[in-house]
Design a protein that fits this description.
By secondary structure, this protein is mostly beta strands. It is built from one helix and eleven strands. Helix content is 3%, strand content 49%.
């Protein structure tokens, strides 16, 4: 059974930075696309970013492009999201996810594994 556990969320002022981590256990996910979704209060879940199994290919939502950066360490079964220049509209619960299919990942449909989420709050 695969488990994804997020950490690194918290309260930060606008313009600040946070680094989210996702720890995977249960199996090696080096062949899986991994990434992040977020859900703000009263809104639907939305795609944030994804990274291919090798780490060579990344994709970002337009809302975070240029501010967020993904990376992964397959030897440690870890994935990271560096979030800079945070804005109040980035406030949400951030979910780590993993799926073998890179192309469909950003739709959030049929994603194999999800974490429980970590709350990010950006104050103005």
């Amino acid at each position: 059974q695969v488990q994804l556990v997020e950490s690194g969320g918290g309260l930060v002022q606008a313009g600040g930075s946070l680094r989210l981590s996702c720890a995977a256990s249960g199996r090696t996910l080096s062949s899986y696309t991994m990434g992040w979704f977020r859900q703000a209060p009263g809104k639907e879940r939305e795609f944030v970013a994804q990274i291919s199994g090798s780490g060579a290919i990344t994709a970002y939502a337009n809302a975070v492009k240029g501010r967020f950066t993904m990376s992964r360490d397959n030897a440690q079964n870890m994935m990271y999201l560096q979030m800079n220049s945070l804005k109040p509209e980035d406030t949400a619960v951030y979910y780590c996810a993993a799926d073998p299919n890179y192309g469909r990942f950003r739709t959030g449909v049929r994603v194999d594994y999800w974490g429980e989420g970590t709350l990010v709050t950006v104050s103005s």
